[in-house]
Design a protein that fits this description.
Layout (H helix, E strand, L loop, with lengths): L2 H19 L9 E8 L9 E7 L9 E7 L13 H9 L3 E5 L9 H18 L5 E11 L1 H14 L1 H7 L10 E5 L17 H15 L14 H4 L8 E6 L6 H12 L4 E6 L11 H4 L4 H19 L1
Parallel strand pairs: 3-4, 3-5, 5-6, 6-7, 7-8
Antiparallel strand pairs: 1-2, 2-4
Helix pairs in contact: 1-6, 4-5
Length: 312
C-alpha cells in the first residue's frame, strides 16, 4: 500500500467532513478580522495570515496581549481560515490574534513548514506593534498537528542549536507561554485510523516520518529533532497549558507530552474532560465547536492561564 497516498486521502475526507459540519457551528460576536495578508510577499496562499481583534479596537487605544495560533489538520490540510470562529472568540475576549498558513506536507517537509512559520513571526515582529500587538506578552497556541508545531516553534525560539538545525533566524520577540489542544507530541507514533500493532498503523507512522524528512530523508539535519521527547530536553520552556479529552482518539499523545514535561521539570496546567462528561468531546472539540459550554470552559482556562503568566 502507498501509505503517503492513504494519508492524503484520509485527510481529504476529514476536510470534507469538517466542511459539511461547518453550517452547524455558531458565529461569535464582538470581533473583527483582516484576512489573507501576504507575510512573505509572494502571494502564495500558503504564505498568508489573518489578524483578529475585538470589534471596537482600532489600535489607537494602545496594544493588546498577543495570541499566535498555528492551525492543525494532520500537517496535510487546513489553513488559518478553518478556525475563524474560534479565533474570533479569542479576539472578542480582549486579545490581538494572528493565525498563519504554512506549506503542508504535500508541498514541503517539516523544515520548510518551520521556515514559513518563522517568516510569519518575522512579519509580526515588524508590523505587529503598529497594528496593536503587544509583543512583550505572547501566547503561542495550536491544536493537534498545530499543537506539535506550537511546541516546536517555542523550542526554536529558545534554542540557537535548533534554529541552526531548521535553518531559521532568531525570532524578533519572546514567547511568554504556550497552549496546546489535543496535541500530537510524538511524530514517530502517529498511527492513523489503526493501532500501532497493525500494518496500517505502522505504515502511516513511517509515512509521516518520511514526509517530514522530505527529499533529504535520513540525512535531513532535523532527523531526531522533531518529537517533543527529542526537542524539549535541555530547553527552558515557558509555562505550558494543555487541553484534551478522554474521548480524543489521540489522547495518548497528551500522556506522552506530560511525561516529557514532568521528566524535564517544566510547569504545566491540564484541562481534561473525562468520557463521562460527554461523548461529543472528541479531538479538538474546543476549536471545532467553540460555542459548547465545555469548549468555553476550556478556552477560558487557557486565557486565564495566559493572563496569570503575563501578570506574574
Amino acid at each position: 500500500m502507498d501509505y503517503r497516498q492513504y494519508l492524503i486521502e484520509y485527510w481529504d475526507a476529514i476536510d470534507k467532513a469538517n466542511a459539511a459540519d461547518y453550517p452547524n457551528g455558531v458565529d461569535p460576536e464582538g470581533y473583527r478580522c483582516e484576512k489573507h495578508i501576504a507575510y512573505m510577499g509572494d502571494y502564495d496562499p500558503a504564505h498568508m495570515l489573518n489578524l483578529y481583534y475585538p470589534a471596537d479596537f482600532c489600535g489607537k487605544e494602545g496594544s493588546l496581549p498577543s495570541i499566535i495560533y498555528i492551525h492543525g489538520g494532520g500537517w496535510m490540510y487546513g489553513s488559518a481560515d478553518i478556525s475563524d470562529r474560534y479565533l474570533g472568540y479569542l479576539a472578542s475576549r480582549g486579545f490581538a490574534v494572528m493565525a498563519m498558513n504554512y506549506r503542508l506536507l504535500q508541498q514541503g517537509d517539516l523544515q520548510e513548514m518551520m521556515s514559513d512559520i518563522s517568516g510569519a513571526m518575522d512579519w509580526l515582529g515588524k508590523y505587529g506593534p503598529v497594528r496593536g500587538f503587544d509583543l512583550s506578552r505572547v501566547l503561542v497556541c495550536g491544536d493537534s498537528a498545530g499543537g506539535h508545531l506550537s511546541i516546536l516553534t517555542t523550542c526554536l525560539s529558545r534554542s540557537e542549536e535548533l534554529r541552526k538545525i531548521y535553518n531559521v533566524g532568531k525570532f524578533p520577540f519572546e514567547i511568554s507561554a504556550v497552549s496546546v489542544s489535543s496535541p500530537v507530541a510524538e511524530t514517530g507514533r502517529l498511527y492513523i485510523a489503526a493501532s500501532e500493532d497493525t500494518e496500517l498503523g505502522k505504515g502511516t507512522a513511517a509515512a509521516y516520518v518520511d514526509m517530514m524528512l522530505g527529499k533529504q530523508g535520513l540525512s535531513a539535519p532535523w532527523k531526531g529533532h522533531m518529537a517533543a521527547s527529542e526537542i524539549i530536553p535541555g530547553i527552558k520552556m515557558p509555562p505550558v497549558h494543555i487541553i484534551d479529552s478522554e474521548n480524543d482518539a489521540l489522547a495518548a499523545h497528551t500522556g506522552y507530552l506530560r511525561e516529557v514535561l514532568d521528566s524535564n521539570g517544566i510547569p504545566y496546567e491540564l484541562f481534561y474532560k473525562s468520557k463521562e462528561e460527554g461523548i461529543h468531546l472528541l479531538h479538538v472539540f474546543n476549536i471545532s465547536h467553540w460555542e459548547w459550554h465545555e469548549s468555553i470552559e476550556a478556552n477560558e482556562s487557557m486565557l486565564a492561564f495566559f493572563r496569570k503568566v503575563i501578570e506574574d
